[in-house]
Each structure stands twice: as C-alpha cells, then as structure tokens.
Amino acid sequence: MRHLITLSVCAVSAFALSACDKKTGTDVDRAFQGVNVVDESNLNDVMLSVADPNEAVSYFQRATGEQPERLELARGLAKSLVRAKRTTEAVSAWKEVTDHKDATDDDRVDFADALIRNNEWERAEQVLDRIPPTFESFKRYRLEAMVADSNQEWQKADTFYETAIGLTTRPANVMNNWGYSKLTRGDYIGAEKLFSDAIRQDNSLFTAKNNLVLARGAQKNYAMPVVPVSQTERAQLLYTLALSAIKQGDTTIGKGLLRDAIDTHPQHFEAAARSLAALEDNVSN
C-alpha cells in the first residue's frame, strides 16, 4: 500500500511540474483522482488474488459500506466471501449483485456457483436457466454439467462437460469431475480414461490419481497405475487400492496392499496400520 501511495504522489508531482503553467488547481485535482482510481483498482485485484480471504472480506465490507452504489465493490465482496468459504454469506452477496440493474450474465453464473457451493442445487439450476443460451463460457458449462449430474441426466452432463473442456486451456479439473461422474454411474472404463487424461494435463492433481485407482480397483485391477507420484502419494494410493480390494471381498490382496502402503510411507502410516491390525484381529478371532 505504501508503495502504491508513493507511486501516486510521484505521478502527481511529475504531472504538476510538467504542466504547472497550463493547468489549474481543478485540473490537477482531476489528475490526482484518476491516479487514485487506478491504485484502488490494483488494490481490489490484490485483495481478490493474494490477500488472506477473510482480510479481503473485511476490506470489501468497509468499501461497500462507504460506497454501496459501486457494483465492482459488491462483486469483490461476493468473490472474497466465496474464497473465504463463507458460502451462506456469499449467496446473499451474489444475490445483491445480480439484483443490480447493471449485473451481467457472468454475475449470474457466479451466483449459481455460490449456490452450488452452498448445496442449493435447485436454485442454482433456476439461475442458470435464466441465462440466455447465447451466453457461452467455460464456467457456465462446467456448472451446467454439475447440475445435470445431480439430476442424473447423464447425456446432458456428458455434452456440457465436453463443451466446457473445449472452452479452456486447463481442462484437468473438468476431466476429473467428468470422470467422477462416470465412476458414479458404474462406467469404470470411461472413468479410468478421463482420470488418466486429467493426470496427463496436470500431473500434480492428486484427486485424479486417487480416483484413477478407485476406477481400476472397481474393475479388480489392483496394480498401481504408471503415473508420477511422490513416496507419500504412492503410499496413499496403495491404501486406497487396499480398501477397494477389501470392499470387494479380496481380503488377502487388501492386506498385502496395506502392508505395501505401510512400508512405502516415509513416516508412520497410522490409518493403514490401524486397518491392517483390525483385519488381522478379525481373522484371529
């Protein structure tokens, strides 16, 4: 903030020195206000991207209290509440934004997103239905796919997921969500392919790796997939495979996978050790 203020003062000083014989005091005041608007815009962006989410909420609450008519500040508050995972408040904030006469379809998509985060699926669907079909965005189609999933409208979900993937250069999370949708339907081969695709797009996405072994385990394929993993991740994936095997009655294989998970983990793997002890105790009894 101090750096931004310094830049503002320097800019104003340079402006005043170069044009002091031409500009009136009113003109200089206008120039100063213009620099402040730029700085405030930068600060708003910082608050929405790198600031602590709850600090951002406090900042935008103060700002909207002072200037309640400014839509961009209301948006900032709504977005910061989502970042802070204060979903009930975020829903109310986005409702106020979308009620504004200058609200956009992007705002309505963000409102639907907040509703889904707050587990209000029917309201989210109603909001999305009011957005004209001519408005196309990655986020809109990703949310449409999730709503279709919740309604078990699988064909619609597949269409929306496919469209969303075509509208982003970073499709890994959407591929993972689509794969999870296939997994819940029992399409394990389709799910496995999508999880593999997601990992190829982003090999740091552990959720997709875990889902991949679930899809393979559901097919009774208990071999570890060839994906880049850390030692800790490998232990956790072995644990997931073990639980999948045990759930399907392959207890001996599950016990072996639990031992592998314990041996692989760089530290004490409490959850795996407890599961193995419970299995062995059950056998001995």
UniProtKB/TrEMBL annotation:
Pfam families: TPR_16, TPR_6. InterPro entries: TPR-like_helical_dom_sf (IPR011990), TPR_rpt (IPR019734). SUPFAM superfamilies: TPR-like. Keywords: Signal. Residues 1-18 form the signal peptide. It comes from the Bacteria. This is Type IV pilus biogenesis/stability protein PilW.
